[in-house]
Amino acid sequence: MWLIALLVPLLPTIFMVSSLYCGKVSILCHQALAWALRLVGGGACVKSTHVFVFSNCTHGKGDSVLETFDLYAETHQSLCIGPQIGEILDDVVKSVKSVRPLWVLELRMHCGYSSGRLLRLLPHGGGLITVVLDPVTADLGEEIILVTSFKQSQVQFLHSSAEAIPTLNSFLESEGTSDGINLVLMDHDSQQYLLDLLALEREELLCPSGCTVALLVPKDPKALYISSHPPIHTHIHTLVMASYIVATATLGRTDRGEAAGHWRHRAL
């Protein structure tokens, strides 16, 4: 805890230095800022976000709820909520929106922000599966989702991703779908990204006609170790260096039956 207390007063300085200088100094500052923000985030951040949004949004108006999240992000630095990440999530959903029904898997929850943005654009008959380990985050996020009044189906699994993934087939079957998942948002433990992608493939949960996988990853392209997965061919495009990037890939079956991926990066 003493380390957190030491870092918090330094966050403005870290942010200022990172915005003034380029190269390695900027990279180190951005990484330190990102690490510190995640370190101090925890339950308190989730609770304060919930209180602000719940108290200031118009209940029953989904757009008002999301706008209130963005307003909160203007005064509370966050890598998980705000207009930038919201715009990217919107683009990702719109890119696969033509698929019906559309099932989305969200690994990790941020007080319902990403959940709300995903639900807002899902077509009729679509649904969102959220895997979240912390019960407090799950409860507060669910309350925010209820306030949005979005009609699409949303279900939570209070497990780790490793525990939840093997159970998803039976859930999808109970919902009357055999097409699998059309979109996966990974924003949990980056060390689990490749393991979870392999588990999703092993359980045959990815839609055979194509599944988009969106990752929130550290800015260093070397951290995109999912790209080393042999069946996935990664094409890295222009990157604007920032603390984190969102990388998306559409995985589908080629004529040889292999998965083919095309990654698209957006700065965050």
Can you describe this structure?
The protein has two domains: 42 residues, no CATH class; 220 residues, Rossmann fold (3-Layer(aba) Sandwich), CATH 3.40.50. The two termini are 28 Å apart. It is 46% helix and 16% strand. The protein has 268 residues and is α/β, with parallel strands linked by helices. Strands 1, 2, 3, 4, 5, 6, 7 and 8 form an eight-stranded mixed sheet that branches. The radius of gyration is 18 Å and the shape is globular.
Count of separate structural domains = 2
Regions with pLDDT < 50 over 5+ consecutive residues?
A: 37-44, 230-245, 253-268
Q: What would the principal axes of the Cα set say about the shape?
A: globular
Give the radius of gyration. 18 Å
Query: Which CATH class of the largest domain is shown?
Result: Alpha Beta
What percent of the residues sit in helical stretches (DSSP H or I)?
40-55%
| Structural classification | alpha/beta
Q: H/E element string? A: HHHHHEHEHEHHEHEEEE
Tally the helices.
10
Q: Identify the CATH homologous superfamily of the largest domain.
A: Vaccinia Virus protein VP39
The major β-sheet equals: 8 strands, mixed
Compute the number of strand runs: 8
- Say what the CATH topology of the largest domain is: Rossmann fold
- State the distance separating the first and last CA atoms: 28 Å
GO molecular function, one term: catechol O-methyltransferase activity
Signal peptide: 1-19
Keywords: Signal
GO biological process, one term: dopamine metabolic process
